[in-house]
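Sequence in, structure out. Go.
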Amino acid sequence: MSLFQQELADQLPVPVASSSLMQVSMVNRMLGGGKRTGVITVKKESLSDDHLRAVGVPLDTPIMGTDHGVEFTRAVLGDEERLNTRLATEDLVKTALMLKEKHPDVGAIVLECTNMAPYAAAIRQVTGLPVYSIYSFIQWFQAGLLPRPFDRQVMDPGTFPTGDVLS
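Output:
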């Protein structure tokens, strides 16, 4: 969907969040010490430079596919009705460890595939790295569209919601 981000944003009257990859540039800016974001996807070869450019992902971003595994890629690309979650977790965790080993400068991971969100906690636990998914992205996105109301006692009662903030 990243290829269509700008077109969708230009055509719709509301903000559009098309791809988990949109988090990469933001996460890169949060990392210090020469660290950068790595990406896990189903099939690396399917994630083109055009996909990355469309949402501002640096072209030298470390990317690793899960296609070496035994379950996740098979089930997702095969559009299977069932998937062995234990084996799929192993596939994602192994991929994350391989990414971290091959690119020691990776300081956070973005999961490109929407089906990877349930494995973020396991990846975080094993790698020790922050892990961002479409789920974390949409939570952030939604928080801007519909901010959480806080208890009015926290706010200055004279300025919320009808008081003059500037007086």
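Check: The chain is about 40% helix and 10% strand. Residues 2-145 form a domain with the Rossmann fold fold (CATH 3.40.50.1860).
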